[in-house]
Structure formats: structure tokens, C-alpha cells
Amino acid sequence: MLFLAVTIVTYVIFYVTPSDPARLAAGQGATPADVERVAERLHLDEPVWEQYGRFLWQLVGEQSLGESFVNRQDVNDIVLRAAPVTAALVFGGAIFWLTLSIPIGIISALKPRSLVDRAGMVFVLIGLSAHPVWIGLIFAYFIGFKLELTPITGYADFFNPSQEQGGPVQWAYHMLLPWSTFAILFAALYVRLIRANVMETMNEDYVRTARAKGAPERQVIRSHVLRNSMLPVVTILGMDIGIALGGAIFTESIYSLPGLGRQVLQSYENFDLPVIQGIVVFSTLCIIIFNLIVDLLYAVIDPRIRLT
Amino acid sequence: MSLLEVRQLRTSFRTDDGIVKAVDGVSFSVEKGKTLGIVGESGCGKSVTCLSIMGLNNPRNTISEGEALFKGQDLLQMSPRKLRALRGNDIAMIFQDPMTSLNPVHTIGKQLVEAVMLHRDVTGRDAKLRALELLKAVGIPHADRRIDDYPHQFSGGMRQRVMIAMALINEPDLLVADEPTTALDVTTQAQILRLMRTLQEEFETAIIMITHDLGVVAEVADDVVVMYAGKVAEEGSVDEIFTRPHHPYTWGLLGSLPRLDADVERLVQIQGSPPSLLKPPRGCRFHPRCPYVLDVCDSVVPELLPVSNSPQHLQACHLDEETKDREVQKLLAGTLAEAS
């Protein structure tokens, strides 16, 4: 359902936009006759619903997302080439933001108004207020350009060291800046989220029960507070990752990472509907899959949801 | 020597609106193996008194003064480490709401075992056997199977049984029960109270029973402390409180108790509601609601004094004894057709 709704909306928006993809695809200097031929080849002369039907038919029947209007490449290939880059960015970023936000969140919840708490709040404000593009440029300028600690742009393939840049080390080296840029906004959000959840859990009756049993504070927190307070975090983490896999447009653009976000931006400029649609399909799938994973994971952590 | 002797306990909370004196000079003692009932309306400081004794108030905004001598040691002065060693071992506590007092993500077995392992140097297997023993003692059917269940798989009454098992697992000398039956339905209440009494005899545990229900007190308590607005209004043996109550607040509580054995037209209610402890009334704190109010009541704080010819029975009211005896006779005639 969600899937159908999303793809239909993409089609409709695409067709109400005043544009002529056939002319763009035919190239400059094409005669009106050329444009017409191109339109016919790309089925752009058919009504919208027929095109949408054709798209669905291809997707279900041949598991194919079609061909790019612009360069006739297989959209499946385009998506599959860009997806690992985005995935690397998102998962690496998630690890970054979790390692940052979990300790800060917990400590500031346990010691409200302490130095860590206040410093954490400053960080949260900066992270929430600063736009990723700005942070990205700042990072690129100071860390990449001035200090020359990391490369400023580009992507190194993890699996194909045969290229001039490649292999895990180069890969991680190139991803450092994008990861930190991408992680900062989420880290800020998660510090707040975790802090609020831990503080709320600390007031639960069963935490008092644990103290009444004579459990030392460390054990109370480890065994009674943390797991309960992480339940909502898991839900939101799953959704965030699902959404981000559809493309981290800003971060990818700044660091010229050939991921889904940059691809969708380029395709949009060319009115390359099949590629846009392909990426939309892919990210919808990601969101659906990650929601499923969250639900399954939830059952593992929270016995109340477990099926009997 | 009493098992627990509380002297002039004062607990105040710092809040955004000012300092709230939740407990203001409360004294009582609990004898070994006996039950003390603490009665009063909501917000009169019953729970805070017990949490102070247990050291379970939030240390960040709470100050407790006075003494709480447990076997001669002052719980309020004790280091957190020593207090932890006592908690759950010599003094245990059960809470009002069994639905939220157990951790939802651990099995009840794990939570019981934790209580044992914190205080006893035993293997996990032995601890689990002990847990099983207690679950059977509190009457959980199929305890050997249910020990691996999670709290949400139990009903409220069963969860309170689990809480009782957890409290008694290390055979404490003192059990603090904070309204243990309030959240339960009436038939379950009776079962839990009976269970607590049986276990009390078996383990020789003293109990502090906090409640707002005089019916519960009549059923289980040996001695009673009636609290109002952070102070003790009256204290004495359960017989004295029920047959010769001396404080108008106690009369009010007794008058609002539904009875089946007397023909009462309506239940008497105490007018108004308990005062804010942020700014308690001057003089006797009960005077704004008291039907017998005298001129002195709004200026002089009544002292807690023994009733004549009954030195164990203390009360804090300015009213003279003759008037009191007369009013009590009326009250008893009206509501306690047969005083027991």
C-alpha cells in the first residue's frame, strides 16, 4: 500500500511539473521530429496512467526499474552502484552518532546540571541549529583543507583495491569527514532523546524496587534502567536509518560521494524519471524493511511484545 | 529495645515553590514481630516517612533529620554502603502498585535471584531454588513453571505476591509495606493481607503497614499511628484507637469507615482536604477542618501527650478529655454499634 502510494505520488508530481524530458533527453540541437521520436521511444507520448502501469508491470514481472531517460543505463544498476555508498555513509554515521550520544546522554541524565550535562546541551544546540551543509563546509575547510588531515571529496571503493584509491583503509579515510558531518545532527537529537528516556526510567517504580532490594547504583542503572530506556531509542534508530538510506542528499553533495542522494539530485536536474522513481522505490523498500527489523528487534528486547 | 525506633523524624523537599515539610517531627517505634499501622489521608507523609527510613528519597532535593534507630543503629546517619547492605536483607519494602514495581524486561525469577545474590554468597542455582521456595510460600500456582515468566504475564494480585516473595526472600526483621493492597480488588486484598499475616508468623517479621484504610489496620495492626499533615495526631494500640479515639481527625476517619453491622444513614466525611505542606496552617494543622475547633487551636501547636490512665496512648489535641469522652461515646453509639 505504502509502496503504491509513494510511487503514484512520484509519477503525478513528475507530470505536473512543467518540463519536457523528451527534449532534454534528445539533446540540444534536436529537431522537433527528433524530440517526437525520442518521446515515442521513451513512451512519454502515452497517458500518465499507461506509463505508470508499464512501470509497475516491469517492476513486478521483470524486477526491472527500467532505463534511464538520459543515458539508457539500467536503473537497477544505477541504484545498486549508488546504494552501497549511501549505506556506508549511513551505517558508519549511525555508529558515529551512537558512540557519541549514548555515553553523553546517559551521563547527563544521571548527573543533571553537571558539567557534562551542560556541555552536552551546548553540543545539542549546535548540532540542531547548524545546517549539515554549513558543518560540512566548515569541516572540509578546516580539517580537510587547512590541516590536510583527510581528503575533502571523493569516495574510495572498499572492495576493489585495484583502482588507484581503494581498500578498507582508504575507504574509511575518505569517509571520516562525511561520517562526522552526517552524524552531528543525529548525535544531537539522540543525546536529547537518550537523556530524556533515561531520566524518565529513573523515576519508574521498579527502579525504586531495585534500590529497595539493596542493589548498588551501578547495578540499578545497568540492569534496570538502561535496557528499559533504550526501547524507544531502538524504534527511532530503525526509522532514521531506513529514511537516511534513501539518500543523505546534503552530505553526499558536499563531499561528492556517488551515493543515492547525489544521484537523485542529478537525475532531478535532467528530469530522469526512471532513475528518480528507482531511488524512491529503493528507499521506500528500505523504510519498510527497517520498520520490520525494528519490530522484530523490539520483540527481542521487550518481552511484553514477544509472541507466545 | 524496640526493633525500630524513630525519633523526631523530619523530611523536607526542596521544590521550585519552596520547601515542603512532608514529615515534621514524627516519632514511633516498632517491636519485633509486631505490626504497626500508619494511617492517614493521601499526602499526609506516610510514604515519605517510610522512604526516609529506607533512604530511598531522592537525595538531590530531600533533607531528613532526626533519628531512625534500627537495632540501635541510626539509619539516617549510615553510609550508603552500609544502608544498602541492610536494605533488602534486614529491612525490606513492598510498594503500592504491583503493576509497575517489577521490571518488565526481566523474568520474575531473575529479579528474585538478584535479591538473593545481592546479600547472600550463594550460587545462582541455590538462589533460584530459594526463589522457587518463596514463590511457593506466597501461593503462586505452578511456581516451578512460572518462575521464568515475565511480570506482564501475572495478574495484579499475583504480582504483589511476587513482590512479597522478593521482600521476604532474605528473611528480613522488618517489612515496610506501603499500601500493599490499595491497587488490588477487595477479594485479592483480603488474600494478600491473610498471606502477609501467615508469613509474618512464619518469618517473625515486624511490619510497618502504611494504609489509608482503617479496615486494613483493624485487621492486621497491633499498634497504630494516625498521621495528619506530616505530624502524628494520635498513636496507641489498635484497641485504644478503635475504642477510645482521642483526636477529632481519628473520629473523622472512623466515621467515614463503611460498616455492615451498624445502621448508618450516611457516611460521615471530613470536610475539606489536607492542607498544602508548603504553607501549613498555624497552630494545630487540623484546625481549619475540625468541627470542634477552639480559640487556641489556630495559634498553639498541640503537643503529643499521653492520655490520662493510658500512658502508651498519645494524642495531640487541645480538646479537654470530658468533651472527648462524650463525643467518642456518641461516635461509638452511632457508628460502632458493637465496639470490638
Protein topology:
The complex is a heterodimer of chains A (308) and B (340).
Chain A: H1 2-16, H2 21-26, H3 32-41, H4 48-62, H5 75-110, H6 115-129, H7 132-146, H8 167-202, H9 205-212, H10 217-244, H11 249-254, H12 260-269, H13 273-301
Chain B: E1 4-15, E2 18-30, E3 35-39, H1 46-54, E4 62-70, E5 73-74, H2 80-86, E6 91-94, H3 108-119, H4 124-137, H5 143-146, H6 156-168, E7 174-178, H7 186-203, E8 206-211, H8 214-220, E9 223-228, E10 231-237, H9 238-243, H10 248-255, E11 305-307, E12 310-315, H11 321-335
Parallel strand pairs in B: 3-8, 3-9, 6-7, 7-8
Antiparallel strand pairs in B: 1-2, 1-4, 4-5, 9-10, 10-12, 11-12
Helix pairs in contact in B: 3-4, 3-6, 4-6, 6-7, 10-11
Tell me about this structure.
The complex is a heterodimer of chains A (308) and B (340). Chain A is an all-alpha fold. Chain A is 74% helix and 0% strand. Chain A is built from 13 helices and no strands. Chain A has helices at residues 2-16, 21-26, 32-41, 48-62, 75-110, 115-129, 132-146, 167-202, 205-212, 217-244, 249-254, 260-269, 273-301. The longest helix of chain A has 36 residues, at 75-110. Chain A is elongated, with a radius of gyration of 24 Å. The mean pLDDT of chain A is 83. By secondary structure, chain B is α/β, with parallel strands linked by helices. Chain B contains eleven helices and twelve strands. Chain B has helices at 46-54, 80-86, 108-119, 124-137, 143-146, 156-168, 186-203, 214-220, 238-243, 248-255, 321-335, and strands spanning 4-15, 18-30, 35-39, 62-70, 73-74, 91-94, 174-178, 206-211, 223-228, 231-237, 305-307, 310-315. Chain B has an eight-stranded mixed β-sheet with strand order 6-7-8-3-9-10-12-11, with helices on both faces. In chain B, a hairpin with a 2-residue loop joins β11 (305-307) and β12 (310-315). In chain B, α3 (108-119) packs parallel to α6 (156-168) and α10 runs parallel beside α11 (321-335). The model of chain B is unreliable at 336-340 (pLDDT under 50). The chains are: A mainly alpha (308), B alpha/beta (340). At the A-B interface, α9 and α10 of A face α2 and α3 of B.
